[in-house]
Sequence to fold (200 residues):
Amino acid sequence: MDTCFGLTGCPNQANSGENLFEEVEDILKKEDLLKFLKKTVRGEVKFHNEFRVAISDCPNACSQPQIKDIGIIGACIPVITKVECSLCGVCVDVCRDRAVSLDSENAIPVIDFDLCLKCGMCAKGCPTGTIKEGQKGFKVLLGGKLGRHPRLAEAMSGIFNEEQVIGIIKECIGFYKKNSKNGKRFAEIFKGLALTLYKI
Fold:
């Protein structure tokens, strides 16, 4: 289980994973994956055999969720309100992904959600409240790993609340324990996983 320094105060926090961290840690202890690996891996269990989960409070992803079996990233969807925009440009300046622009003719900010990483910085920076924080939740990534054949985790579509994230993790671990043979990584088998409530 890995986390960024979000638990001690991430300055870029989109959504806190503190409660989620504790719940996931409990699940991993109960599932006792080390015991499972000792039964299924030929020879000694090595570092690269371990099942890894990472939580990051923002898209900067200091805990490297993109290369873990399950990666969780805090997210905050910005919302345009009816509050008059002063066209100050702070939202444009703070957006590292160039997802925010100003429509000066209509005096409103415009968010390109294809570019938006849902970090919430535009809402935090907006002095008028024209952009505010909307839905908060978590992005979930599955199937990342390093090693001889590395791969980046694939993002599930949508933003999930804590309860949904816990459900996804339980389903993934159950699938892993049922289908992993001889230390095969989750990244190598997860494509056969049919998450009943969610689309990957």
Remarks:
- The radius of gyration is 19 Å.
- DSSP finds six helices and seven strands in the chain.
- The mean pLDDT is 91.
